[in-house]
Amino acid sequence: MDISDSQNFLNDKWLVLELIKKSSINKNDIVLDIGAGEGIISLILSDLCKKVIAIELDNNLFIKLKKKFEKIINIEIINRDFLSSSLPDLDYKVFSNIPFNQTSSIINKLFFSQNPPQDSYLIIQKEAALRFMGEGEGTLVSLLLKPFFNLSILYNFKRTDFTPPPSVDIVLLRIQKLQCPLISQDELQLYKNFMSFIILQQSSSLKKRVRRLFMPAEFYSICKILNLNPKGTIKKIAFEQWLGLFKYFLSLKNQKTFNNKIKLIQNSFKKYLSIKDNQPKVRKTRFKR
């Protein structure tokens, strides 16, 4: 059986209730449940928030949800692929056991949209959570998230919390929108293109990756200011240093060559999204009733 078709079901509704109660979700919130499955998250949320938007692509599960929730007026059920659905115009939050085979695409849609959620709680593979937090091979996605969101693992599930037990570790990842972003809205698109361009370069060292953006003297000046190793790899660079690198790039905007550099990195973020959307699919889970 293809790993992308396999499912694991959480078997403790009281654990779900405890986790939601420990979240920031309250009676004034609109909350998305992406991949609502058999509805255990949506049902518990309906008692704790203003409105639940339960999104379920599977037609059979959708019919069951419609029947199950027909008398619960604050649950809206949508039979559609989340990736083709519109996000709410108002403030909203997310609490969801998202399909693991769509993790990257869902992250991209939620957090790189015009109206990202105020707070999100996602049950995902631990490996993916660490990647979004900047560990392992997650440098780029982490750099794109951290100026605008705080990421933390709130709960490590036991494999026996699921039936059948998964072969991977699963966690509850919180992604909370920062009240004061580290990058202004005016700089947002440039920041995305700048970081995407550097990370997508096929070179081992930072020096080689930025050689078309900075003159040698500028690069060594940056390294001195930010305490960077000129011969180091990008995996050794802290987020604060990355942020300093971008701020230094902005300081060069009066140079005659700056517009050429802007053209060079243009559409780099779109290229990143295209690459992420075409990556192999992995395991997914669903909550059991």
UniProtKB/TrEMBL annotation:
Q: Which GO terms describe its molecular function?
A: RNA binding; rRNA (adenine-N6,N6-)-dimethyltransferase activity
Q: Which PROSITE patterns match?
A: RRNA_A_DIMETH, SAM_RNA_A_N6_MT
Positions of the Ribosomal RNA adenine methylase transferase N-terminal domain: 15-179
Note one Pfam family from the annotation. Answer: RrnaAD
SMART domains xref list: rADc (SM00650)
Residues where S-adenosyl-L-methionine binds: 8, 10, 35, 56, 81, 97
Q: Which UniProt keywords apply?
A: Methyltransferase, RNA-binding, S-adenosyl-L-methionine, Transferase
Top-rank taxon, per record? Bacteria
- CDD domains assigned: AdoMet_MTases
The entry sums up its family as follows: Belongs to the class I-like SAM-binding methyltransferase superfamily. rRNA adenine N(6)-methyltransferase family.
Q: What PANTHER family does the annotation carry?
A: DIMETHYLADENOSINE TRANSFERASE, DIMETHYLADENOSINE TRANSFERASE-RELATED
Query: What is the recorded name of this protein?
Result: Ribosomal RNA adenine methylase transferase N-terminal domain-containing protein
> Which taxonomic lineage does the organism of this UniProt entry have?
Bacteria, Katanobacteria
